[in-house]
Amino acid sequence: MKPSMQIISLGLGVQSVALYYMSSMRLLPVADYAIVADTGREKSSTYAYLNHLLQWQQKNAGIPIIVKKDKNLFTDLLNQNNSHGNRFSSIPSYTRNSDGTTGMLRRQCTNEYKIQVVDNAIRDLYGLGKYQRRPQTFVWKGISMDEVERMDQPRSSWKTNVYPFTGFEFDREGWRRILWMPPMDRNQIISWYVHQNLPVPEKSACVFCPYQSDAGWAKMKRDAPDDFADAIRIDNAIRNSTTKGIQNPCYLHKSLKPLDQINFTSTDELWSGECTGNCHT
Q1: Which terminal CB of the chain, N or C, has fewer other CB atoms within 10 Å?
Q2: Whose CA is closest to 203, among 144, 158, 149?
Q3: pLDDT by position in tens, the chain (length 281)
Q4: Which DSSP helix (H) or strand (E) runs through 225?
Q5: Residues 58, 36: Cα–Cα separation, whole Å
Q6: First CA to last CA across the chain, in angstroms?
Q7: Which residues contact 230 (CB under 8 A, 6 or more apart)?
Q8: Measuring CA to CA, how many Å separate 157 from each of 31, 103, 135, 173, 178?
């Protein structure tokens, strides 16, 4: 095992999949592994693309892909009020504040069901125990030039966050330039897919992610009814979270209405809000 590894955090969106292809095709330095943290109910199109990518990896001797299903956010949310006392890990659902305004719950899901799962997989690759320190590891993330505000420093000293499409990497000491990748924005990356005759993945996310506009919900309802039906299941399941210390009903939609009672008419961007980029990239 290498003392220091290069890992692609494979979120299965446009940018991180492009990193996977480019590294596997030797257009970039060759990473050691790509890790997918499956939260339990990604979009159907995302699972379809993952199957395609696994087949591509086999045919083209691509970087090994590790799919981790350690934690299932979908079932945890469905069962949050059961008698087993599952710990509540909040998604950024909408609720009414004490002053009557609309607010959002604190987002815990990205860290617990995405980042920590990848970190634990890295620990296992090194063959380490739970509390053993990992060697310095470079974790590639698919953030492009049009979303540089999503870059961040890692919380752990053993980790360096690498953002090839922006030309920067960050560790606990600060940022550094990387010289092996010219910066690219999302449109340039999509053009690269077209030039390589590769299918372009959709943005990836849980079907119940609240960071969607009406256009996103309308598209899901129209094109992926099974996904939308599962989003409704979660919307109904989170409604009464008072046993977890939340005072008012919770909703997936900012209107504070049940998802199956909303007429989605907006033509805004499909995704909005304070997403960190760990899910959609």
Answers
A1: N
A2: 144
A3: 567 899 999 999 999 999 999 999 999 999 999 999 999 999 999 999 999 999 999 999 999 999 999 889 999 999 875 544 455 567 999 999 888 899 998 888 889 999 999 999 999 999 999 889 899 999 999 999 999 999 999 999 999 999 999 999 999 999 999 988 889 999 999 999 999 999 999 988 999 999 998 999 999 999 999 999 999 999 999 987 655 567 789 999 999 999 999 999 765 555 555 455 556 55
A4: helix 225-237
A5: 16
A6: 28
A7: 41, 74, 207, 208
A8: 20, 33, 10, 9, 19
Count other C-beta atoms under 10 Å from residue 63's C-beta.
22
Please give the torsion angle defined by the CA atoms of residues 235, 209, 71 and 9, in that order, rounded to the nearest 10 degrees: 180
Residue where the block lists tokens 């997989």 = 121
Q: Are 279 and 110 in contact (CB under 8 A)?
A: yes
- Which class for 158: exposed (0-12), middle (13-18), buried (19 or more C-beta within 10 A)? middle
Longest dimension (CA), the chain: 58
| 3-class DSSP assignment, residue 137 | strand
Global pTM exceeds 0.85:
yes
Q: Return the bridge partners of 34, or none.
A: 8, 65
Q: Identify any residues that bridge with 163 across adjacent strands, giving them in sequence order.
A: 168
Q: How far is CA 228 from CA 38, 105, 218, 232, in A?
A: 18, 22, 9, 6
Enter the tokens of residue 159.
């980790």
Burial 171-200 (b: 16+ CB within 10 A, else e): beeeeeeeeebeebbbeebeebbeeeeeee
Tokens matching residue 56: 């591509």
